[in-house]
Amino acid sequence: MNKRLAVFSFVLCLTLIWFQSIVLAASDLATIEDLRISTSDDKVRIVADADKEVDYQSFALSSPNRIVVDLSNATLGRNVSKEIDVDNRYVEKVRVAQFEKDVVRIVVESPVKRNDYDVFGIVGGSSAYRVAMDFGQISYLNGSSGSNYSTGSSSSSASNSGNSYKPSNISVDSSAKSVLKGKVITIDPGHGGSDSGAVGPSGLYEKTATLKIGLNVAEMLKKSGAKVYITRKTDKDVYGPNASATAELQARCNVGNWSNSDIFVSIHLDSFTAPSAQGTTGYYYVNGSYDSQKLATYVKDGVIEQIGTPDRGAKTCNFYVVKNTEMPATLVEVAFVSNPDEEAILKSEDGIKKAAKGIFNGIVRYFQS
Ligand SMILES: [Zn+2]
To answer: How far is the CA of 337 from the centre of ligand 1 (A)?
Structure first.
């Protein structure tokens, strides 16, 4: 074989290998086959249908306000509309484009605030994989819901988890026992698993503190003879990782509703951009019963007595878990994790025990009154 032919064969070979790798890579990509938009009174749902699993990541941009969802390892199908006018109070316009070779970008122009949208994956169904985006009245917590930045990965944060946490042996007196005996109570430690909740300036996760407090409250209630249900005992999502806000929160409500609990107490930490914000708030549903208001007030007061936080009052709200539970319910914002002093309280075992004792005392007083 002459030299020139050998070089030519070699180059041809390389070219073929390179070409084949491109073809392989292209066929690995998911195709976004459809982008469906449905509207109802309280929300707009946008669903991207892919022919195989895609990873997704979302983030918000301002002026104009828009939420961007990147679907990676994906190409845009030929028949998908590139621009859709929704002209709804939750969504103005949806645009979709091949942003990079393997990234399809969906841009949703929407005026909703960060707790009023959610991006989540749905596996299964006729299409192998869907990414759904909800915009509208899905707001549920004034703390961070984690839904403003979510990824398709189902891995959850391993650190800061409180998974091995054992509640303390806090004594309860006999009067509490006589009040609580036989009462059915659901305790809901806010967030968990893929949703860390708000994060304090020195790194305390809301989900970690709420779990520790919740486990201590549950322990004291059990000791007093109450029948206690807790929505989670470990660092996990109640419904499942990266579920929609509604699915996750409904799963928590179900624990209370299906057990016919007498009361439902959801435990959260507050958070605000200004680190100076501080204090304890007892929330109850705006159309809730007088008993819910009473429960919110006593629980909040109990916490304040123990940890000495400023009183932000008992306030009405529209949070999902107090709205969709069928018994008197409160969501207590124990303190601001964004405030360095209050974060320090909740990082200490003493602070956790006191917060739990305060919630417990509030529950006892509620049943006493
Ligand atoms: Zn929260």
So the answer is: 10
How many A from CA of 141 to the centre of ligand 1? 6
Q: How far is the CA of 102 from the centre of ligand 1 (A)?
A: 35
* Number of C-beta neighbours around residue 194 at 10 A: 22
Q: At what angle do helices 340-347 and 349-368 cross, to 10 degrees?
A: 90
Ligand 1 midpoint to CA 350 (Å): 21
Distance 338 CA to ligand 1 centre (A): 12
Omega into 64 within 30° of 0, i.e. cis? yes
pLDDT tens digit sequence for 299-358: 999 999 999 999 999 999 999 999 999 999 999 999 999 999 999 999 999 999 999 999
Q: Classify 227 as helix, strand or coil.
A: strand
The answer as to CATH 2.60.40.3500 being correct for domain 29-136 is: yes
Q: What would the DSSP string read from start to end of 291-310?
A: HHHHHHHHHHHHHHHHH---
| Ligand 1 centroid to residue 299 C-alpha, Å | 16
The correct CATH number of 174-368 out of 1.10.760.10, 3.40.630.40, 3.30.300.30, 3.90.1150.10 is: 3.40.630.40
